[in-house]
Amino acid sequence: MNLSIVIPTLDAAATLPRTLAALGAEDDIIVVDGGSDDASVAIARKSGARLEAAPMGRGVQLQAGAEAARGDWLLFLHADTVLESGWREAVEIFCADPANRWRAAVFRFALDDESAQARRLERLVAWRVRWLGLPYGDQGLLISRAFYDRLGGFRPLTLMEDVDMARRIGARRLTVLPISARTSATRWRRDGWTRRSLRNLACLTLYFLGVPPHVIRRVYG
Fold first, then answer.
1. Are 112 and 182 a contacting pair, CB within 8 Å?
2. What is the C-alpha separation between 135 and 100, in angstroms, rounded?
3. Rounded to an integer, what distance in angstroms lies between the CA atom of residue 53 and that of residue 151?
4. Angle at 207 between CA 204 and CA 209, to 5 degrees
5. In angstroms, rounded to a whole number, what is the distance separating the alpha carbons of residues 34 and 87?
């Protein structure tokens, strides 16, 4: 398996070290920075990852990372998400199956918070992924280069680039790996569990109603 891991960053110094530490040094790791003012770039360089620069915006950064990637398989991962032990074995098993060349995989959603609110949110996300086929980027995305190119890759969207990609993949071509991707719960603790969840739902609803992502971003920041 020849794997490239793409991580977009923007002022991610608080979480990036843990994300990188969980990956090891076996793969082609690419950090695509969108203009950080903190130590993100220095952390990426110290880790041995390849560093790329791109205009701010996760869709643009993911697109740039894919263009720089050398692997036959691509793993897109957020800078505040830590893969649990065993992730590489699960990835290797998925990639070894020839049928999965035209499929994609994500990890189980988990939060680094012990509260009951976190467990409820994890169950809601699992339901959304199972029945709607709509994982978000904080679950990672594993996809062959061939399938990624066939789908047209990530689009340079300011928001909802992950949902846009998931819709093009389609629920029937999506596998959930038996490994958790544990994401920082900082946003929910800061904004409030209910408020943050309602904000995310509002963004998704507006997107499905056809509101352009850049307009949604202006409304919700």
1. yes
2. 18
3. 24
4. 110
5. 27
Supply the pLDDT for residue 123.
96
CA pair distance 152, 93, nearest whole angstrom: 25
What would the two tokens of residue 37 be? 């003012």
Average pLDDT over residues 9-26: 94
* Cβ neighbours, 10 Å, residue 16: 24
Tokens representing 137 are 């980027």
Please report the pLDDT score of residue 221 as a whole number.
59
Q: Are 74 and 62 in contact (CB under 8 A)?
A: no
pLDDT tens by residue, 172-212: 999 999 999 999 999 999 999 999 999 998 998 998 998 88
**Is the pTM for the entire model greater than 0.90?**
yes
d(CA 25, CA 133): 31
DSSP class of residue 55 equals: -
